[in-house]
Specification:
With about 375 residues, this protein is α/β, with parallel strands linked by helices. It is about 45% helix and about 10% strand. The protein folds into two domains: about 35-230, Cytochrome c-like domain (Cytochrome Bc1 Complex, Chain D, domain 2, Orthogonal Bundle); about 240-365, Oxidized Rhodanese, domain 1, CATH 3.40.250.10. The strands form four sheets. The protein has a five-stranded parallel β-sheet with strand order 4-9-8-5-7. Helix 5 crosses helix 6. The structure holds heme C (2 copies).
Length: about 375
């Protein structure tokens, strides 16, 4: 009896000592990151222009105050950890070229977007300065770890939000080839360790061991397929006299859901049977360049709609779509309603839903170059 008592005491002392060692190891194993020089400052004119560009192009999804989640699970553009670890790659690159297969299109003029290279740089730096973060220096070296173990850690801790295959459920698609092509291992690791402040992404530094953070990082890296970067041949945009599809034909009679939404199958049926329509693509024009519904007119959510509606007929059925699946198209149709257009509808499933059901799109001619960057 006294024997087992001593043993228990001994065990709990050992436990306390072990706990102490673990706590202190964790404390001194906490990584220390070197500071890095801040990027250039903007002139007041550049900052004002960048703020205006943010309002015009980004508020719809990333929110009035860069908090994210206004639409489409668009991430926060103000969390400290993003700006500590990610300027310019993590900002400039998705802003310029977009993330294929997500609602994030590219805004650079080179690919058909509305912003110049100077403007995307200034907006990147404006976002940095607004965040108030201080940059840290991250290693460029790959993070090595046990991929099998990392997969288990991933399934246990991450899949609920990021998806079983990293496809993104209500969080960014970690396996997205355009994200993996520019996000360095240490950038990914930093996000896992620190989380993203003010978002559902919690820091895992207290929950996972250093080794498991490495393992799960290595696992995410292992999901990278080869990114195919294609240079799109830009098409000329349709002229107003081509806006109406099948001008002489009868209009479709859609049974609209909630008085607004048309299902992809019904829209496809109307198109196949040659009905008269105007199709508005409300996304950033660079993604219209990549793929769009046949006959659609680029009519981005950020355009001067009062000016653009001059070219639209009021008596023809208008259908708007986007990839969000409906944020931009709902926005445009609301504005059109205020301007007196009422024969309008929104494609319920959005263009990704349309494509997933096997309906056709017109794709760009792409000169394919293999490999990332
Ligand atoms: C139609 C909605 C939409 C609009 C408009 C939009 N974004 Fe996004 N953005 C998204 C989504 C969704 C993602 C996440 C994509 C993913 O799953 O990886 C994203 C991701 C990003 C990222 C990557 C962030 C990270 O944590 O990796 C940046 C940077 C970004 N957007 C900047 C911008 C800027 C700047 C603008 C305005 C010029 C803009 N976005 C406009 C929807 C949008
Ligand atoms: C509760 C849901 C949730 C869980 C669980 C979760 N995440 Fe996240 N994660 C998010 C959200 C939401 C974001 C985007 C946050 C933002 O910037 O707005 C994110 C962002 C990230 C990013 C940054 C992506 C980028 O491009 O900026 C990485 C990397 C990441 N998570 C990895 C993980 C890993 C690995 C795990 C498991 C160990 C995990 N996450 C668990 C919701 C989650």
């Amino acid at each position: 009896m006294s024997d087992s008592l001593t043993r228990n005491v001994a065990r709990s002392r050992f436990g306390a000592a072990l706990a102490f060692v673990l706590v202190s190891t964790a404390a001194w194993a906490e990584r220390v990151y070197e500071p890095q020089d801040p990027p250039r400052e903007l002139t007041p004119e550049q900052a004002a222009r960048a703020a205006e560009n943010y309002r015009q192009y980004c508020v719809l999804c990333h929110g009035e105050n860069r908090e994210g989640y206004a639409n489409d699970h668009a991430p926060s553009l103000r969390s400290a950890s993003l700006f500590e670890s990610g300027v310019p790659h993590a900002i400039l690159r998705p802003l310029s070229y977009g993330r294929e297969g997500t609602a994030m299109g590219g805004y650079l003029d080179e690919i058909g977007g509305p912003m110049t290279l100077d403007e995307v740089w200034d907006l990147t730096y404006w976002l940095f300065w607004e965040s108030g973060a201080e940059r840290v220096r991250l290693s460029e070296a790959p993070v090595s770890g046990d991929i099998e173990r990392g997969r288990q850690v991933y399934l246990d801790n991450c899949a609920a939000c990021h998806g079983e295959q990293g496809e993104g459920v209500n969080a960014p698609a970690l396996a997205n080839p355009s994200a993996l092509a520019h996000n360095k291992d240490e950038f990914i690791r930093y996000a896992i360790e620190k989380g993203r402040q003010g978002t559902p992404m919690a820091p895992f530094s207290g929950t996972l061991s250093e080794a498991d953070i490495d393992n799960v990082t290595a696992y995410i890296r292992s999901l990278a397929g080869e990114e195919v970067i294609g240079k799109v041949e830009l098409r000329s945009l349709p002229e107003p006299e081509d806006y109406v599809i099948n001008p002489g034909a009868p209009d479709p009679e859609f049974a609209l859901k909630d008085d607004r939404y048309v299902l992809a199958a019904d829209l496809n049926e109307a198109m196949v049977s040659g009905k008269r329509l105007v199709l508005l693509d409300t996304r950033v024009v660079s993604v219209w360049q990549r793929a769009h519904l046949a006959g659609s007119v680029p009519f981005p959510y950020y355009s001067d709609l009062e000016e653009k509606v001059g070219h639209l007929p009021k008596d023809v059925q208008i259908v708007a779509y986007c990839s969000c699946p409906r944020a931009a198209s709902d926005y445009v149709i609301d504005r059109l309603g205020e301007l007196g257009f009422h024969r309008t509808a929104v494609l319920y499933e959005g263009i990704f839903g349309w494509m997933n059901q096997g309906f056709p799109v017109v794709r760009a001619d792409v000169a394919e170059t293999r490999g990332s960057e």
